[in-house]
Amino acid sequence: MDNTDMKQIQWFPGHMAKTRRLIASNLSLVDAVVEIVDARSPLSSRNPEMDHMTKNKPRLVLLNKSDLADERTTQQWINYFRRNDSEALAVDCKSGKGLKSILPTLKNTVLKELMDKRERNGMKGAAVRLMIVGIPNVGKSSLINKLAGSKRAKVEDKPGVTRTKQWVKLDNNTELLDMPGVLWPKFEDQSVAVRLAFTGAISDDILDIETLAMKLLSYLAENYPNSLTERYKIELSEEDTGLDLLEKVGKKRGMMISGGEINTERAAITVLDEFRSGKLGRITLEAPPQKEQ
Ligand code: G4P
């Protein structure tokens, strides 16, 4: 894809500066950061600036939506993060899988030094404060709801009522800031933008939907051919282009327009929807850098 394929995305500098300031001020209040990424695209779904902003804080990376990702690659990603100085866990905030390990991992590993120091200083009971960070749509609200559940204070949902900072007690000595730090995704590299569009983290408008689906089908034909042959009952050939694959899917599903042409737009919507909802199986869109696995 070249630059002309991409529609311009506008960010507002004032809004960005305010967001960064808010995150920085909240960070000063917490002992550790829980960063959520999408297990299907763990690097593409991070904002590298977040790395910089949180560099002085102990951090736990959660590979969320692990129910949709390839298990083997998720394990490689966990190893990658651990090698790069961040403890990491695979979780699924939809079913709650993996969430029980979060607090023990924070206390026994990520915050071990702080916990030991507090114990030595007779401050064992002091609350540990946490904050969740991540780009939109990675599952921050789902995680807060799962962790805090009914303990979450009711916030008035009225225009003009300013939300004050709320700390939710997760256990007798852990408190979570119920306002996550949200940074926009970053996609100077266009393959990153495409991965974010595949998962629905950014709007489909970034590319036309058929181009997006053709790129996804080509990736699947190369990396997960069985997911295509099983779901769509199509035969794959080495020479298939993205368009060939899209037409095969449309034809198999009977998506025709008058004149016997295949409705590739409908086929594209179907492929993207089925990928996003996991109907094509557990698929990861990027592997850790080779030497890091
Ligand atoms: P955010 O606060 O970071 O913006 O994300 P949020 O929790 O709103 O989650 C975004 C979408 O991702 C939601 O789907 C949510 O249900 C889904 N989600 C979160 N965690 C997981 C997970 O571990 N696995 C799967 N499969 N999905 C997850 P939605 O379509 O926007 O809403 P709905 O399906 O909940 O109605």
Describe this structure in words.
The structure is a single chain. 40% of the residues lie in helices and 13% in strands. It contains eleven helices and nine strands. Strands 1, 2, 3, 4, 5, 6 and 7 form a seven-stranded mixed sheet that branches. The two termini are 28 Å apart. With 293 residues, the protein is an alpha/beta fold. Mean pLDDT is 89; it is low at 1-9. It folds into two domains: 14-178, P-loop containing nucleotide triphosphate hydrolases (Rossmann fold), CATH 3.40.50; 208-292, Orthogonal Bundle (Conserved Hypothetical Protein Ylqf, Chain: A, domain 2).
Would you kindly provide a brief summary of this structure?
This protein has helices spanning 13-27, 48-53, 71-83, 102-110, 112-120, 140-148, 190-199, 209-223, 225-232, 242-252, 264-276; strands spanning 32-38, 59-64, 87-90, 128-134, 167-171, 174-177, 181-182, 256-257, 261-262. With 293 residues, the protein is of the alpha/beta class.
List keywords for this structure.
2 domains, Rossmann fold, 11 helices, Conserved Hypothetical Protein Ylqf, Chain: A, domain 2, disordered N terminus, 293 residues, single chain, binds guanosine-5',3'-tetraphosphate, seven-stranded mixed beta sheet
Question: How is this fold's topology laid out?
Answer:
Elements: H1 13-27, E1 32-38, H2 48-53, E2 59-64, H3 71-83, E3 87-90, H4 102-110, H5 112-120, E4 128-134, H6 140-148, E5 167-171, E6 174-177, E7 181-182, H7 190-199, H8 209-223, H9 225-232, H10 242-252, E8 256-257, E9 261-262, H11 264-276
Parallel strand pairs: 1-2, 1-4, 2-3, 4-6, 4-7
Antiparallel strand pairs: 5-6, 8-9
The structure holds guanosine-5',3'-tetraphosphate.
Guanosine-5',3'-tetraphosphate binds near residues 67, 136, 137 and 138.
